[in-house]
Amino acid sequence: MNVAETDAVFMRRALDLARRGWGNTHPNPMVGAVIVEDGQIVAEGFHAQDGGPHAERAALTALGRAPKPGATMYVTLEPCCSEGRTGACTEAIVKAGFNRVVVGCTDPNPAHAGRGFEVLRAAGIEVASGVFETECRDLNLIFNHWIVQRSPLFAAKMAVTLDGRIACRTGDSQWITNAQSRADVMRWRRLFPAIAVGAGTVAKDNPRLTARCEGADAWSPVRFVFDGLLRSVVDRNLPQLYTDEFHDRTVVVTTSRGGLGYVRKLRDLGVQVWVFESPDQRVPLAAFRKKCAEEKIAGVYFEGGVQLLSEFLQERALDYLFAYRAPVLLADEKAKPMFAGLRTEKLINAIRLEDVRHATFGDDALMRGRVVYPEKLFVDEALFGIR
Question: Mean pLDDT score of the chain, rounded to an integer?
Fold first, then answer.
């Protein structure tokens, strides 16, 4: 193999290692590293959790000795060069005496981008970057948004028919997509530190909002329920989100119009409640984003309903979209649409996706990407119902 082919093999392994931190490193990135001597991997490491050793230091610890002359380190993300809780990784690499470092992608933090490369090159180390750059960057889409915008990534998931419908006119929707697609949704649930739904979805589906991946125990992120009037607390038969073994991970997001009695009821159950001031029953999305940032919740995975997600689009608050499409056609204008509430009369005013990634799951297809808004967004004045 030539150098490029060799670098690709070892970087692919570093990516596999990085994914072992899937969902456990927030608000830090997932990073993998391998140490290669004489064309063979002799040590590996990955960033396992926030506050733990970085991948480069984990690999050096696993090696347990100084690398041989001519050794190369492969790492998916530019090594950090600032003194944090675990020390600068560039310092550890220089001290170890590596001849060459191969990096997947540059640190997205504008304050640090490229500085790690400069430190290594100044020490006489050969640096190659951009190996599997797209894959390495995509791995940390939550971190990248968080570190650049200083704000959580708000992503929505939709499962739709070929004509963009999420349910029949009767509300029947289980299941539009296949089991493979639903398993992939569980994988993304496991990545995001929080999941969110509206009160209507809770009333209709009584969801668990846990990640249930094959071979692993059920895991619960922070579970947000948007309920501006606390309708979900009125009935005696409370949603399982408020009573299951993960109920302390549930946060009801409401307004001052929801009623203090219902707020006390939820808190007595051990459910958290975030109350926002609002002129109506709608939770102010900018205030919600700010609160998530204060709580260091780096990303929220929104799973509906249509009304909640449409409000996020109308207010330009949705950052990312996962759209699973099944080979099913309803051809019914009264079937429930994927989104609503805009008057888009020209394509120049359409919302688009950028940095698009594609995947297939049996006959289903996933398109996901960053949401890009037009200069002008025309909101339909028709009122939504209360969520």
Answer: 92
Catalytic residue (choose from 5, 37, 44, 56):
56
Task: Please confirm, yes or no, whether 56 is among the known catalytic residues.
Answer: yes
Helices 89-96 and 115-122: angle between axes, nearest 10 degrees: 20
Segment 176-223, tens digit of pLDDT: 999 999 999 999 999 999 999 999 889 888 999 999 888 888 899 999
Would you tell me the crossing angle of helices 3-18 and 55-63 to the nearest 10 degrees? 100
Residue 94 and residue 125 in contact, taking contact as beta carbons nearer than 8 Å:
yes
Token reading at 219: 């895991």
- Name the token pair of 154: 């708000």
Give the tens place of pLDDT for each residue, 278-323. 988 899 999 999 999 999 999 999 997 888 999 999 999 999 999 9
Instruction: Say what the alpha-carbon torsion angle 148, 308, 208, 248 is, to the nearest 10 degrees.
Output: 60
Helix axes 89-96, 55-63, angle to 10 degrees: 30
* pLDDT tier for residue 63 given thresholds of 50, 70 and 90: very high
By the 10 Å C-beta count (0-12 exposed, 13-18 middle, 19+ buried), 331 is classed as exposed
Residue with tokens 């309920």: 227
